[in-house]
Amino acid sequence: VQLQASGGGLVQAGDSLRLSCAASGRAFSQYALGWFRQAPGREREFVIALSRAGYSTVSADSVKGRFNISRDNANNMVYLQMNSLKPEDTAIYYCAATFRRTAARAMEVFTNGGDGMDYWGKGTLVTVSS
Q: What does the pLDDT look like over 6-64, one tens digit per residue?
């Protein structure tokens, strides 16, 4: 599976932005999908993830209520809808995919910082001005 994120850009605080991640390869629907971000000078951090069936979502406290994730298995796409953006959301955003036998195990890969992640995409830069 190859992943490519897009949709980043420069926005103002309070704006919304939707990131897309296109996947190539087989069995896309079998993977849990999610997003990480890395701000300048900081470590990579987990943002949000969605189970392969689409029933389980986990997100970082910093984005709860503002960010949503969705997937389109027919078109091998995953989306990150970001609302009420803040300057501290400025970062390079990466999509990622992992396969585990259970949704719980898959979500753990995301919430544990991405160690053991199967696939990473190239990032897209989001800059939020104040």
A: 999 999 999 999 999 999 987 889 999 999 999 999 999 999 999 999 999 999 999 99
Q: What is the pLDDT of residues 74-125, one digit of tens each?
A: 999 999 999 999 999 999 999 999 999 999 999 999 999 999 999 999 999 9
Q: How far apart (Å, rounded) are the C-alpha atoms in residues 16 and 101?
A: 34
Residue 50's alpha-carbon distances to 10, 80, 86, 95, in angstroms, are 26, 11, 23, 11
- Give me the DSSP letters along 75-118: GTEEEEEE-S--GGG-EEEEEEEE--SSHHHHHHHHHTTTTT-S
Kindly give the pairing relationship between strand 124-129 and strand 9-12: parallel
Integer distance in angstroms from the first to the last C-alpha of the chain? 37
